[in-house]
Write a structure and sequence with these properties.
The chain has 6 helices and no strands. By secondary structure, the chain is an all-alpha fold. The chain has one domain (about 5-155): TspO/MBR protein (Ferritin), CATH 1.20.1260.100. Helix 1 (about 5-35) runs parallel beside helix 3 (about 75-100). It is elongated and about 50 Å long.
Length: about 160
């Protein structure tokens, strides 16, 4: 129970990242995003919210599993910094893609995010296999989102 505050901060912090990007997304979906040419494999808009809520939860638990080991350990601190870096890239993607209406710049950000997610997972693996596996759905979704972002750039 002594680590419960770390778990709450980790999960709520990750969910907050998603929540703060929502205004950029919601306002652009019925207007600008609706006018874009999208590939045949683009999922319906309603799917993104539930998927991201689950992914942010899994990310928060994964971060907690690393954080509870103590940031005084160099490997833990490094893994935590990689996680926070990818979370920061995740945070800026919506304002860039939807807010600025800049799919190409969004693609650059999401590719960088994908690379840092992979690096984060490599740092997490020796510290907590469970934390590593909790990030697998996130990596898969961001991989799909990268393909979708690429297709939108190419089609528009």
């Amino acid at each position: 129970m002594k680590d419960l505050p770390k778990l709450i901060i980790s999960v709520v912090g990750c969910e907050l990242v998603g929540f703060l990007g929502t205004p950029f997304t919601i306002s652009a979906i019925p207007t600008w995003y609706a006018t874009l040419n999208k590939p045949f494999f683009a999922p319906p808009n309603w799917i993104f919210g539930p998927v991201w809520i689950l992914l942010y939860f899994l990310m928060g638990v994964a971060f907690y599993l690393i954080w509870k080991q103590g940031f005084k350990k160099k490997k833990v601190k490094t893994a935590g910094l990689f996680f926070l870096t990818q979370l920061g890239l995740n945070f800026i993607w919506s304002p860039i893609f939807f807010g600025l209406r800049a799919p190409l710049l969004g693609l650059i950000v999401i590719v960088a995010m994908w690379v840092v997610i992979v690096m984060t997972m490599k740092k997490f693996h020796p510290l907590s296999r469970l934390a590593f596996y909790l990030l697998v759905p996130y990596l898969l979704w961001v991989s799909f989102a990268t393909i979708l972002n690429t297709a939108i750039v190419l089609l528009n």
